[in-house]
Specification:
mainly alpha, 6 helices, globular
Length: 206
């Protein structure tokens, strides 16, 4: 069987997480009566974890090998697990879980931004990867700020609880989140600077 057609262990994990997410969403809807989390788990999360597979099959598999799909699905799985674990009480467990996942997820997003940037770029990086890293860092910070605006808007308009720490002022929560995002974006950009050439070459079909 061709390696491009082989279903990997991470792909099976993604299938499991998509089904699990729907089950959790139905529990939130029928038992806990939390409409926001019900919609998030039943519809948004499954689409998010399955999206890398769809994009790869439609846009990327002619140029990139299966290791790229495994990377993208691994990122999706990590983001799903970290975000889901927070909704089950870790945000209020007495640790800076919110800041931790902001750093980790922002590192992953920075790497994804680098890939999108590279995929859309028609010429190479003759001047090195510094300009790529600056672009990745800047755009990742913008995404983080956009997410904070989305959280505040969602909480005010739809009554959701994306800001979980009820004992911390929202302005302080936003500042902490943006600081964590900045750290994550910096770490991700540094990784891109030193590792991107090897990573990208490893994904390309020889």
């Amino acid at each position: 069987m061709n390696s491009q057609q082989t279903k990997t262990a991470i792909s099976y994990l993604i299938d499991f997480l998509a089904v699990l997410s729907v089950v959790i969403g139905l529990v939130y809807f029928f038992k806990i009566k939390d409409l926001f989390l019900a919609v998030s788990f039943t519809f948004v999360a499954p689409i998010a974890v399955l999206l890398p597979r769809y994009i790869y099959k439609r846009k990327l598999r002619q140029k990139y090998n299966l290791s790229l799909l495994k990377t993208l699905e691994s990122f999706a799985a990590v983001m799903f697990v970290l975000a889901s674990a927070g909704t089950f009480g870790l945000y209020n467990a007495g640790i800076e879980y919110d800041s931790l996942i902001h750093v980790i997820i922002t590192v992953l997003i920075a790497i994804l931004v680098a890939f999108v940037w590279t995929f859309r770029k028609t010429s190479g990086f003759e001047d090195g990867y510094l300009s790529l890293c600056i672009s990745v860092f800047s755009f990742t910070i913008i995404l983080g700020a956009f997410w904070e605006v989305f959280q505040m808007s969602g909480d005010k308009v739809f009554g959701s609880k994306m800001f979980f720490d009820l004992f911390q002022p929202i302005n302080l929560d936003v500042a902490c989140d943006l600081a964590a995002d900045t750290i994550g974006a910096f770490i991700g950009s540094v990784l891109v600077y030193f590792k991107w050439s090897d990573w990208h070459k490893g994904w390309l079909i020889k």
